[in-house]
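Predict fold of Electron transfer flavoprotein small subunit; 263 aa.
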Amino acid sequence: MNIAVLIKQVPVSNDVSVDPKTHALVRASSEGMVNPADLNAIEEAMLLKEQTGGKVVVFTMGPPDAEKALRDGMALGCDEACLVTDRAVAGGDTVATAKVLAAAIKKYGEFDLILGGALSADGATGQVGAMVADCLDIPHVVEAQGMKYDEAEADKIVAVKKFHDKRLSIKCALPAMISFNFGCNEPRLATLRTKRAAKSKPLVTYTNAELGLPLDEVGIAGSPTAVVDSFSPKAGRKATMLSGTPAELAKKLKDLIEDEKGK
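Predicted 3D structure, encoded as tokens:
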């Protein structure tokens, strides 16, 4: 089975700068790492590869230094990588990003399954996976906790989700897109040997010229949403001492809450 895994390079810490015009993160200004939930998606891909064979290709869109995240993915066992990097696609919202990633997947080859993390550590929109599936016109399951594959039904995949105290098994036809929750499994660790091997694994780079997407559909120009402002919230604390009987304390606390809600 051929599997594509979508990953994102996110800042290692909250110490990042913001472009004053676009209000987007200046990713080149901070150290990056693979988005944590995407590591869970890579682990699911590796488990399925061990069961079925085939290859795992890891995809990302970002600045040239996002190659590091792809190499990290290949150090975990992914066979190949694809980086989409072009100023034309920079700053795009989730809609524009999904179009670019879907185009890269189509250009690269045919895949039976596309995986990714459900949420990113920086934006946390949870939208890109479903939007990529929509662009490719394939079924998708979001916020999965795991998946199961039966070779007797080789054209289907079962995604496992949690809903309150229940576990749901959702069967869908392949090809499909599944996004996984952070912490749904225990991602394997890279070794010195696998890190060295990752340096020589194939990595393809695409620009928008190679993908052939209209300039008014990608990047900031192709984004139907825009960030109009960004700021650090004001943090403050205050304490109010209450006294009285339990019934009096309960009423005073209720009044305080109502006052805060009314502000």
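The chain has a mean pLDDT of 92.
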